[in-house]
C-alpha cells in the first residue's frame, strides 16, 4: 500500500447517547465523518463503529444467552453502523461495511485468522472497510460478543504479524482520554504506560462503574487494549477529535 494505514474506532459514546436507547448524535457523526474523509489524501483507513445505545442494551439483555439474542444484537449493531456509513459516504469516502463474523476466525477468544487478501485489496482500491460490533462464533466457546476495541486491537496485531504496518490506532470517544482529578481540577493524562498506570491507580481510582448498560468493558478495557497495542509496537491515541490526533501524527512525522 502506498499510504500509511490508520485504524479508527468511532466509539458508541460519541456516535450515540448511551444513556438513551437508539439516540443518535448526528452532529458528532457528521463532524467525525468529515474529519475521517479529510484523512483520505494521506492515509488508508479502516473504521470500527461501536454499538452504543443501539447494541449495548440488547447485548446486555441477552448477555447470558447470546445464541438466543444473536440476530437482534446483530441488527442493532448494523443499524447504527449504517447511519454512520451513510455520513462517511456523503463525506466522500467509499465506505463498505464488512461483517466481522464473515472475515475473522476466533478460537478461545483469540483471533486466529482474518481475510487479509480481501482487506488489502479493498484498501488498495481506495475503499474504507467498516466493521461494527458483532456476535461471532468462537470455534471453542461458541457465540461471543466482539467489541470493536478488541477487534481493532486483534486486527492491528494480526496485520503486523503479516508484515502490514498499522501506523496508529485512534479510539474516538466522548472524552479526550483518561481524566484524573489533580489539585481539584480535571486533567487529561497525556501519556499512559503500564508503569505510569500502576502508579496512578495506586493514588486514586481511575475507572468507575459504568452508569449505562455496557458489555464491552468501558474505558478500563480500552486502555488495556491500547497497552496491548503498545506491547506490539503500535502507537495509539484516545481522543474526542480526529483533527487533534492528525496534528500529532504530522508533527511526529516531521521529527523523524
The whole-number mean of residue pLDDT values reads 86
Helix content: 40-55%
Q: In angstroms, what separates the terminal alpha carbons? A: 21 Å
- Which residue ranges are poorly predicted, with pLDDT under 50 across at least 5 consecutive positions? 250-256
> Rg, please?
18 Å
**Number of helical segments?**
10
Q: Estimate what percentage of residues fall within beta strands.
A: 15-25%
The run of helices and strands is EHHEHHEHEEHEEEHEEEHHEH
Shape: globular
Write the layout of secondary structure elements.
Elements: E1 4-10, H1 12-15, H2 26-38, E2 43-49, H3 52-61, H4 66-90, E3 94-98, H5 100-103, E4 104-107, E5 110-114, H6 116-124, E6 127-132, E7 134-138, E8 142-146, H7 148-161, E9 168-172, E10 179-182, E11 185-188, H8 194-203, H9 218-231, E12 235-239, H10 242-255
Parallel strand pairs: 1-2, 1-9, 2-6, 3-6, 9-12
Antiparallel strand pairs: 4-5, 7-8, 10-11
What does this structure look like?
With 256 residues, the chain is of the alpha/beta class. The chain has one domain (4-255): Carbamate kinase (3-Layer(aba) Sandwich). The chain has ten helices and twelve strands. The chain is globular. Mean pLDDT is 86; it is low at 250-256.
Provide tags for this entry:
256 residues, alpha/beta, Carbamate kinase, globular, disordered C terminus
In short:
The chain has ten helices and twelve strands. By secondary structure, the chain is of the alpha/beta class.
Amino acid at each position: 500500500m502506498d499510504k500509511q494505514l490508520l485504524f479508527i474506532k468511532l466509539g458508541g459514546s460519541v456516535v450515540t447517547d448511551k444513556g438513551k436507547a437508539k439516540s443518535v448524535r448526528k452532529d458528532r457523526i457528521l463532524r467525525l465523518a468529515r474529519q475521517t474523509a479529510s484523512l483520505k489524501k494521506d492515509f488508508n483507513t479502516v473504521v470500527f463503529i461501536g454499538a452504543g445505545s443501539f447494541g449495548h442494551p440488547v447485548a446486555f439483555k441477552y448477555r447470558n444467552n447470546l445464541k438466543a439474542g444473536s440476530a437482534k444484537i446483530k441488527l442493532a449493531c448494523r443499524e447504527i453502523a449504517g447511519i454512520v456509513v451513510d455520513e462517511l459516504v456523503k463525506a466522500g469516502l467509499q465506505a463498505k461495511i464488512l461483517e466481522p463474523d464473515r472475515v475473522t476466525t476466533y478460537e478461545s477468544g483469540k483471533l486466529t485468522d482474518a481475510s487479509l487478501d480481501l482487506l488489502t485489496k479493498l484498501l488498495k482500491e481506495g475503499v474504507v472497510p467498516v466493521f461494527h460490533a458483532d456476535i461471532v462464533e468462537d470455534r471453542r466457546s461458541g457465540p461471543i460478543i466482539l467489541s470493536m476495541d478488541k477487534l481493532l486491537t486483534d486486527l492491528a496485531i494480526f496485520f503486523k504479524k503479516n508484515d502490514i504496518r498499522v501506523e496508529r490506532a485512534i479510539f474516538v470517544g466522548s472524552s479526550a482520554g483518561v481524566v484524573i482529578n489533580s489539585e481539584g481540577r480535571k486533567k487529561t493524562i497525556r501519556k499512559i504506560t503500564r508503569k505510569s498506570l500502576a502508579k496512578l491507580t495506586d493514588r486514586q481510582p481511575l475507572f468507575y462503574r459504568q452508569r449505562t448498560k455496557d458489555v464491552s468493558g468501558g474505558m478500563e478495557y480500552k486502555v488495556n487494549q491500547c497497552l496491548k497495542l503498545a506491547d506490539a509496537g503500535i502507537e495509539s491515541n484516545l481522543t474526542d477529535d480526529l483533527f487533534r490526533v492528525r496534528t500529532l501524527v504530522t508533527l511526529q512525522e516531521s521529527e523523524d
